[in-house]
Amino acid sequence: MSATRDDGTNPREFDAILIDLWGTLLPYADETARERNLAEMAWAMDVDPTGFTMAWIDSIGERCRGSLGSLEATIERFARALGGRPSSDAIRQATELRLDFSRSTLDRVEPILPGLDALRRSGFRLAIVSDSTEETARLWRETRLSSRFDLAVFSFEEKVCKPDPRMYAKALSGLGLPPVRCAYVGDGGSRELTGAESVGLTAFQYRYPDQSRDVPRFDEDVHWRGTQLADLRDLLAFAPRRAREP
Question: Are 145 and 25 in contact (CB under 8 A)?
Fold first, then answer.
């Protein structure tokens, strides 16, 4: 869908764009690869891989809110709940296995880099607003995405998840901008699009191009009926006027 009016004029100009991470700029992890990684973590601690995998997947909300503590503490908690007594070396090994897996997923950025770079060149300031576990927050500075953003707001650090208005407010405060001067872009999980609109942001839907639109999304914005973007560069129609002047 076009991001401009039928007459070609710009309905609004934005100074900044708040952007979701998972499902939007990065794909959700492949299910088979994820389960293999979790099994390897369980084997490192000599606990049942099926039980460990189920506990890990079922705890996604708690892990995103940081309510289970650090990555190491969470890994140990689940291992002990399964009857394990992992050594510090085993916990360290399981932690590194998890971080290595997260690095591999965080590096799948090639399809979206041209769009992000075009937005930056056009004068937009960019902020990440993401429901993410500690792995993402810990590794963020290592990623190729990090240098393209002015700031990043992660639920693990804020202890709340979207659509809680505090997630959006933290990004707006960091940018020093009111919501009327900003857009929000996300794939539609966690009711993030209606949440963004509820605080005064203009929301757009965009989904990572190499991932099926049929991928299950937690608490999806199924009733949202806004503009869907085919390409991040569709947002160039809303670039700050000063960036378009010679």
Answer: yes
* pLDDT greater at residue 11 or residue 178: 178
pLDDT at 241: 66
Q: Out of 12-16, 130-134, 172-176, 239-243, which region has the weakest mean confidence (pLDDT)? A: 239-243
- pLDDT tens digit string along 115-168? 999 999 999 999 999 999 999 999 999 999 999 999 999 999 999 999 999 999
Element (H, E) at 108: none
Tokens representing 192? 């993030």
DSSP H helix total and E strand total for the chain: 11, 6
Per the prediction, the chain carries an average pLDDT of 91
Q: Collapse the DSSP code of 145 into the 3-class scheme (helix H, G, I; strand E, B; otherwise coil) and give the result.
A: coil
CATH superfamily of 16-27+112-244: HAD superfamily/HAD-like (3.40.50.1000)
Query: Backbone phi, then psi, for 132, in 5-degree steps?
Result: -140, 150
Burial 18-56 (b: 16+ CB within 10 A, else e): bbbbbbbbbbbbeeeebbebbbbbbbbbebbbebbbebb
| Tokens coding 18 | 């708040």
DSSP state of 128: E
Q: Cβ(156)–Cβ(63) under 8 Å?
A: yes
The Cβ-side half-sphere exposure at 214, using a 13 Å CA radius, reads: 0
Q: Read off the pTM.
A: 0.91
Is-contact 45 91, C-beta < 8 A? yes
Strand partners, 17: 126, 183
How far apart (Å, rounded) are the C-alpha atoms in residues 207 and 91? 35
